[in-house]
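Design job #97: recover the sequence.
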C-alpha cells in the first residue's frame, strides 16, 4: 500500500510565563538548557528516523515559545534534521514565535537557517485583553512582530488571534479582527478562548462573553474575513489563496508525522496498513535523560477509533474528504461508516456525494456531536 505523506513535529517546551488559559506541555524557565535539549532532540530523531525513507513535506517547531531559543540552536537543530531525514524540495518549515520574545534581527536569523513560515501568537491587539490573558507582550510589540515577520525573508506567516476573551464585547472582538486584517497576514488562525482543565482559568474562571455575543461576533467576523479575501478552509483557519498551512493540512487529512521533544505526539502508518499513535515523556528533565527520548506510550488504533479519529480531523476541513481518501488513510471500505454517514446526512449535518463528504453549515455548528457518532458506532 502507498503510505501517507510524512511530516515532523518538534516540541520546545519552555516559555517565559505560563498563560492562565494554556493546557499545552509548556514550562516557565529562567534559563533554557538549549544545547543539551537540541542534543536530546537529535538523539530522539535518530531513533524515529530509522528505516524512514519518505520525504518530509513539512516541519513544525512548536511549544512553549520556540523563539526563546537562539538562532544558533535552531540552525543546529535544522541541520541535524537535514542530516537524518530526506526533506521535500518544497518543505514547509514553520516556527512559532511570540511578540514578547522576538526582534526583527532574530526572525531574520531564523529565516536564514531555513525557517520559511512563522506563526505569531498575537491573541489580541488590546493591552487590556493581553493583560487579562497573561501575555508578556503589549499591542506595540504585537505590531512590531508582524513587521519583523514580513521583512524576515520567510515565505509566509500566520497570526494567531483569539476571540471570546474576558469581558470582551462585540466591538472589541471585531476591532481585534480588523487590526489583523489590516496587517495583511497571508494566514489567520481565529479561534475562541476555551477554558481547559488543569489551567489557572479553570480553577479561577474569568467573566467571558455570553453565547449571544459570541454568536454575533463569529457571524460578523466571518463576513469581515470573507470580504477581505480570506477563505475559511478549516474550522478556525482562514487563508489567502495558496497560503494554507501545509503542516496542519497533513494533520487534518490524516497524514503521518514523526514527533520529537518532551510530550510530543506522533502518528505513523505501518506497511501492513495499521495506524499507530505514540507520545514522548512530558517532563523536560526526564526527556533530557538518556532514555527520556524513547516513546513512553504507544497504541495501535482499533477499527472504531480509526474511523472516529479520521472523521475528527477530516470534518474540520471546509472541503471535507473524498471517499477514496478515507479508504487510503484507514485501509477500510467506506461502508464501515455508512450508517452514521447517512443518518447525519438525513439530519442535514453532512453533505454526501460520490466525490466529497463534508459538513453543512449546520453540521459545522454541531461538529462535536457529528464526530461522536463515528466513535460510538451508532
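Job complete. Output follows.
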Amino acid at each position: 500500500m502507498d503510505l501517507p505523506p510524512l511530516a515532523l513535529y518538534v516540541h520546545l517546551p519552555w516559555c517565559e510565563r505560563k498563560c492562565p488559559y494554556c493546557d499545552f506541555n509548556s514550562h516557565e524557565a529562567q534559563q533554557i538548557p538549549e544545547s543539551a535539549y537540541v542534543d536530546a532532540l537529535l538523539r530522539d530523531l535518530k531513533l524515529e528516523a530509522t528505516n524512514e525513507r519518505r520525504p518530509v513535506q513539512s516541519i513544525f517547531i512548536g511549544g512553549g515559545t520556540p523563539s526563546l531559543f537562539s538562532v544558533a540552536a535552531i540552525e543546529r537543530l535544522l541541520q541535524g534534521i537535514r542530516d537524518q531525514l530526506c526533506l521535500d524540495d518544497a518543505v514547509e518549515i514553520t516556527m512559532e514565535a511570540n511578540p514578547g520574545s522576538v526582534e526583527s534581527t532574530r526572525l531574520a536569523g531564523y529565516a536564514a537557517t531555513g525557517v520559511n513560515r512563522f506563526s505569531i501568537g498575537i491573541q489580541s491587539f488590546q493591552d487590556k485583553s493581553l493583560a487579562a490573558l497573561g501575555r508578556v507582550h503589549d499591542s506595540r510589540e504585537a505590531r512590531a512582530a508582524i513587521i519583523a515577520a514580513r521583512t524576515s525573508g520567510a515565505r509566509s506567516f500566520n497570526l494567531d488571534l483569539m476571540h471570546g476573551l474576558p469581558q470582551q464585547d462585540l466591538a472589541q472582538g471585531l476591532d481585534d479582527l480588523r487590526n489583523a486584517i489590516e496587517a495583511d497576514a497571508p494566514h489567520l488562525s481565529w479561534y475562541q478562548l476555551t477554558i481547559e482543565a488543569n489551567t489557572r482559568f479553570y480553577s479561577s474562571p474569568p467573566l467571558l462573553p455570553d453565547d449571544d455575543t459570541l454568536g454575533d461576533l463569529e457571524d460578523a467576523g466571518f463576513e469581515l474575513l470573507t470580504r477581505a479575501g480570506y477563505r475559511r478552509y478549516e474550522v478556525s483557519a482562514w487563508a489567502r489563496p495558496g497560503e494554507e498551512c501545509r503542516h496542519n493540512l497533513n494533520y487534518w487529512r490524516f497524514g503521518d508525522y514523526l514527533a520529537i521533544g518532551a510530550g510530543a505526539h506522533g502518528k505513523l502508518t505501518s506497511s501492513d496498513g495499521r495506524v499507530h499513535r505514540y507520545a514522548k515523556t512530558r517532563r523536560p528533565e526526564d526527556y533530557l535523560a538518556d532514555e527520556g527520548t524513547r516513546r513512553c506510550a504507544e497504541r495501535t488504533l482499533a477499527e472504531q477509533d480509526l474511523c472516529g479519529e479520521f472523521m475528527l480531523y477530516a470534518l474540520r476541513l471546509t472541503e471535507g474528504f473524498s471517499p477514496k481518501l478515507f479508504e487510503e488513510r484507514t485501509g477500510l471500505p467506506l461502508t464501515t461508516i455508512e450508517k452514521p454517514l447517512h443518518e447525519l446526512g438525513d439530519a442535514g449535518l453532512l453533505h454526501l456525494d460520490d466525490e466529497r463528504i463534508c459538513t453543512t453549515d449546520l453540521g459545522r455548528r454541531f461538529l462535536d456531536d457529528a464526530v461522536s457518532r463515528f466513535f460510538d458506532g451508532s
